[in-house]
């Protein structure tokens, strides 16, 4: 648990034994775990003593003050620390103090959160249809949400867990924190375990496919296949596509995978290093032999419109294009010219685009 790690590092820091890497880790964890005033007083008292370069444990008066503070946190007396006459063993004393802090926190839970467990609440970030969102999570990870997407995580995120739930599409740039793995849950049918990684995850409820595209780092994906759970490890520039179906008589979150496909990620434009799966972050649209109905579905999300297709045969047309996607009419004009097989009309008041086969 990271809180245990925090107090272990605190002991090493005060004893002067912490390495540069451990001090950097302590700084990061201390920002995650706010210290209450009495605990801060305890730490300051120890820091004042050993910050002077003392190589002995505190004198009786200082030791008693430290013990009193610890006892107040536990609301009960702490057995005295017995020190033999002569020089007091500095490192042994500081180790005992750090261990006491660790026991108090993990055993009684008093140092930060008090005696009573509090109900866990969740934070939800939403990118509505027609919008995108960029957020920095408490652990420093960056998440870009595509239109019509939502991300949720508990208030304990970054302390005891780094678990998020996603509905929609998001690009993740995850901060490496080995002591707390980053997990993404998609209902009960899929879970992704992350270390330090940049990747795109597309998992809209309305879509029949879930796509995980790894740009750098490593991902472990766990998914349901029939009645069993499978695991696969992705390497950089690999994409995992899962065909999903809803189990009869189940809710929409109870999905199972019926087909699995692993493919390499190829540049749409080798010279510009354009990766089709992630260009949406830069407000661009990239279609590569994409069925027309999927193109229209993406336009509905991006621009918060409703598309009415007059000719169903257009759905199966294959579309390829790479365009900047800021203005709806400019995009529709470019798509119409590029495809050459459809015309459109736009009802601005009702935000409806009607598409018909070109005569």
Automatic annotation (TrEMBL):
User: Pfam families recorded for this chain?
Assistant: FecR, FecR_C
User: Which residue windows are transmembrane per the record?
Assistant: 93-113
Q: Which Gene3D superfamilies does the entry link to?
A: 2.60.120.1440, 3.55.50.30
Molecular functions per Gene Ontology: sigma factor antagonist activity
User: Which ranges carry the FecR protein domain?
Assistant: 124-219
Residues forming the Protein FecR C-terminal domain are 284-353
Q: Which UniProt keywords apply?
A: Membrane, Transmembrane, Transmembrane helix
Supply the PANTHER family for this chain: PERIPLASMIC SIGNAL SENSOR AND SIGMA FACTOR ACTIVATOR FECR-RELATED, PROTEIN FECR
Entry protein name? Ferric-dicitrate binding protein FerR, regulates iron transport through sigma-19
Per the UniProt record, the source organism is Chitinophaga niabensis
């Amino acid at each position: 648990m990271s809180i245990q790690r925090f107090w272990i590092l605190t002991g090493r820091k005060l004893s002067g034994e912490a390495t540069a890497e451990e001090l950097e880790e302590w700084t990061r964890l201390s920002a995650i775990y706010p210290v209450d005033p009495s605990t801060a007083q305890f730490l300051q008292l120890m820091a004042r003593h050993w910050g002077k370069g003392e190589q002995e444990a505190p004198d009786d008066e200082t030791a008693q003050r430290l013990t009193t503070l610890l006892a107040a946190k536990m609301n009960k007396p702490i057995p005295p620390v017995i020190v033999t006459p002569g020089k007091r063993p500095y490192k042994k004393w500081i180790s005992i103090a750090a261990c006491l802090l660790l026991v108090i926190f993990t055993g009684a839970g008093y140092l930060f959160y008090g005696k009573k467990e509090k109900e866990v609440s969740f934070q939800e970030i939403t990118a509505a249809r027609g919008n995108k969102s960029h957020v920095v999570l408490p652990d420093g990870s960056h998440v870009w949400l595509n239109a019509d997407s939502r991300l949720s995580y508990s208030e304990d995120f970054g302390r005891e867990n780094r678990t998020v739930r996603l509905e929609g599409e998001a690009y993740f740039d995850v901060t490496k924190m080995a002591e707390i793995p980053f997990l993404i849950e998609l209902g009960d049918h899929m879970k992704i375990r992350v270390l330090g990684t940049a990747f795109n995850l597309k998992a809209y409820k309305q879509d029949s496919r879930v796509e995980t595209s790894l740009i750098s780092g490593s991902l472990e994906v766990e998914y349901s296949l029939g009645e069993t759970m499978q695991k696969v490890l992705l390497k950089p520039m690999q994409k995992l596509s899962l065909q999903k179906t809803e189990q009869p008589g189940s809710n929409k979150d109870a999905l199972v995978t019926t087909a699995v496909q692993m493919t390499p990620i190829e540049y749409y434009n080798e010279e510009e290093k354009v990766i089709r799966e992630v260009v949406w972050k830069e407000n661009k649209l990239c279609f590569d032999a994409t069925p027309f109905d999927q193109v229209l579905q993406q336009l509905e999300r991006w621009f918060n419109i409703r598309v009415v297709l007059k000719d169903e045969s257009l759905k199966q047309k294959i579309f390829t294009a790479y365009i900047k996607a800021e203005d709806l009419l400019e995009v529709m004009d470019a798509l119409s010219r590029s495809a050459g097989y459809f015309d459109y009309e736009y009802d601005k008041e009702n935000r409806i685009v009607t598409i018909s086969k070109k005569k």
